Amino acid sequence: MMKINSFIKYAAYAVALVLVATLSACSDDDDKVLLCSDHLMEFSYTPESKEYTVCASGDWTISSNATWIHFDKTSGVGDGSTREKITVTVDHNISGERTDSFTVTAAGQNLVTKVVQDAGHATILGTPSLSATLQVGKSAAGTNIVVPYTYGYKGQKVTITPTLSGDGASGLQAEPVTATLTGENGTINIPITGTPEGSGEITVSLMADDTSIDVTSANFNVVGAIILEQHFDLMIWGGNFITGEKGIMFSGWHTDATGKRDGTADKQSTCNPTSEAGDLLGPTCPWNEAFVKSRGLEGWLGDEVHERPGFVKLGKTSVPGVLTTPALGSMVPANGKIHLSFRAAKYPQELELGVVIDIKVEGPGTVQNPTYALQGAVSMTKNKETSTWENISTVITGATADTKITITCHNNELGKKDEKGNVYGCRYALDDIVVTQ
């Protein structure tokens, strides 16, 4: 953080410190000693502690008007030669960069140390999701409310209290959970217990014990029998652009007799959040049939469908991604009314663009709400872009056993270039596709 202008700005502090060290060396021979280890202390936005030393003759004290700077001790008696260690700690900063100081007083002198802390942000709880679909009469045991977070820090303790409401909440419970965060980004799991007593919408609201963390909520449906579901749990390769985290990639792919990749390779390596291993379903798919089946996509069709850890990314800069389910089969009720739900998220580089999800049917059926404009919420942590999942649901009427559902997207500026030369694309992520009665 120390830049050239910062060095010039604080040069006076350094000169003063040298003079103090020269004129009042920390020794038994001088009865007016005051020497401190730093004239400037810099901290990250997270709660952080650093060591500071004082060498003084006689009584010494530390004072500061800053409520966010703390000391493990603020006074002592020095012998003029021993360097006494003090721990300086700063609170979690949830606003802009802040600057203050503290003063060490001893031997008739005052030495000022400046304290600068990086800009920060309150921890953000993202839109919660469910780890599994809730069904009437089926125990919720093993189902979690999955809460993504950003702007956390390692060791941070957060207690989240869930509230369940709505017609679908009857018979379900969720207790407060205290979690110790592992880093800046991650997820918190809150178990749901009980058995849903009836179908309908359920609203999950989450409140944290830290008042700087905003309340968040999401709506889900407690459904009847599941007709089809795809959670992409078998996907493990590629970077995670939702959380901005690196992933797993391979090189030296092995191929079968037809020249298609069989899923094995010579070397594993770490890849960046935007990396992927190739279209799983399109006409130029590099993978063989056995590998696609091993990823749980037997019977699925599509184009520009790319594996990511626990989800799929669809599309590229000039081609919309398309994913089509298998035929729904005999579980479709006689009245032809079915419910579709899934999660979608914009690719970070498309966040300023109007990506619209399109829901279509192949064969019999009509989609009640066939389009959904992704909002594209984004956060930035240390120059790392992350996207946000959005829950989408609709009703399809007139469906039969032969009906297939297609999810794709459109962008009115697709293929055009902006003033910087970037191509307007239609890239997005999909997860947790569930079709129910």
Give the topology, please:
Elements (H helix, E strand, L loop, with lengths): L3 H6 L1 H13 L10 E3 L3 E4 L4 E16 L5 E3 L3 E5 L4 E7 L7 E9 L2 E9 L6 E2 L3 E2 L12 E8 L6 E9 L6 E2 L3 E4 L5 E9 L5 E9 L7 E7 L3 E5 L7 E3 L4 E11 L5 E11 L17 H6 L6 E3 L1 E4 L2 E4 L7 E3 L13 E9 L9 E7 L3 E2 L3 E3 L4 E4 L2 E4 L2 E8 L6 E7 L17 E9 L1
Parallel strand pairs: 2-8
Antiparallel strand pairs: 1-3, 3-5, 3-6, 3-7, 4-6, 7-8, 9-11, 10-11, 11-15, 12-14, 12-16, 13-15, 16-17, 18-34, 19-20, 20-21, 22-25, 23-24, 24-34, 25-33, 26-32, 26-34, 27-29, 27-33, 28-32, 30-31
- The share of residues in helices is under 10%
Q: List low-pLDDT spans.
A: 1-30
Number of strands: 34
What kind of sheet is the major sheet? 8 strands, mixed
- Shape field: elongated
Mean pLDDT over the residues: 87
Q: Please count the helical segments.
A: 3
The separation of the N and C termini measures 57 Å
Which class best fits the helix and strand makeup?
A: mainly beta
* Radius of gyration of CA atoms, rounded to a whole number: 29 Å
Beta content comes to over 45%
Structure notes:
- By secondary structure, this protein is mainly beta.
- Helices cover 6% and strands 47% of the residues.
- It has helices at 4-9, 11-23, 289-294, and strands at residues 34-36, 40-43, 48-63, 69-71, 75-79, 84-90, 98-106, 109-117, 124-125, 129-130, 143-150, 157-165, 172-173, 177-180, 186-194, 200-208, 216-222, 226-230, 238-240, 245-255, 261-271, 301-303, 305-308, 311-314, 322-324, 338-346, 356-362, 366-367, 371-373, 378-381, 384-387, 390-397, 404-410, 428-436.
- The strands form seven sheets. Strands 1, 2, 3, 4, 5, 6, 7 and 8 form an eight-stranded mixed β-sheet that branches. Strands 18, 23, 24, 26, 28, 32 and 34 form a seven-stranded antiparallel β-sheet that branches. Strands 9, 10, 11, 13 and 15 form a five-stranded antiparallel β-sheet that branches.
- A hairpin with a 2-residue loop joins strand 7 (98-106) and strand 8 (109-117).
- The protein is elongated.
- The two termini are 57 Å apart.
- Mean pLDDT is 87; it is low at 1-30.
